């Protein structure tokens, strides 16, 4: 482990480390942690290394001084892990430990950019005010001095909120060097551009981002903006979600306010690709309005406005439930304050390995309660879903 310690001393004390992840447990290891990631952070103006220990879908953080961090990583590699990826400003290092304890260190071109540490403290303001961002100037959100136009202030807040939600989950993709991302129903693409800016310009990821929409003129406009800004790995395509076949594998699917069942088609694509992260804000959920019925719920069903909201909530609950059945853990988050729009629930789903049997039971009971037959999401998901439902009869 001397080579490992030497490398760590070099990259940690000279502040070259950007991010690292220790993985692949040794066979006889008794560690409860499946993975440990490390990154430099500023805590009360002191630079330390933050360790994130991953276990049972949970995480625990611990901050250590540079010297303690060098000792700790060396010990973790010695006792528990067979692989470490260390991303530094000069190079990406892969440390491999063989069954017999032999250490090999591979060096590759650097794939990440250094993040300004103060950024970690300003988590809620990834995009700042009074600072010009070319994409926001071009999209008419702020002027060239960085002043946000008052009529675009909600959009500005929405962009920050969205990026904050992405930043909470981005560790899920930490082992990947290139991220394939699709934004279905991207529209004018404020959030698609923001996502590109955040992942490429701030975090230093290599990405291929595609925005898809049915509106030809919007797609032409977005491609022109991406070209002018030299956002080379951001492309916009004209087409329907259902027939989109650009990628074989996608890491993140975003679909914000895609209308009615277009959201189901987007979720079905995401599941088919095995996307690790799905971020979806459904919109205009009309499908179940005429399909739900339970006599006990008559007081809610007899008022159109209540029934409409009820149908939306049932649709989204059903979607989240289906994602859980198919191996995702889901959260429902408030995307933007309800005072701005009622279309404000974001479904955030993170891929886990196992099929969730409880979710199957919940799904069947929920459908029976509301007397729902043949919801569109079942058609959209096709065999992926029907096979699991059949298996657990
Ligand atoms: C309300 S806009 C949302 C735009 C953007 N995602 C946002 O949140 O600001 C919905 C967009 O979804 C697109 N859309 C709806 N159904 C679609 C489909 N089946 N395939 C591709 N785009 C679709 C529409 O053309 C429209 O631009």
UniProtKB/TrEMBL annotation:
GO CC annotations, alphabetized: cytoplasm
Domain Methyltransferase as annotated: residue spans: 154-288
InterPro entries the record matches: Methyltranfer_dom, SAM-dependent_MTases_sf
CDD domains, per the entry: AdoMet_MTases
Stated name of the protein: Methyltransferase domain-containing protein
Organism: Caldisalinibacter kiritimatiensis
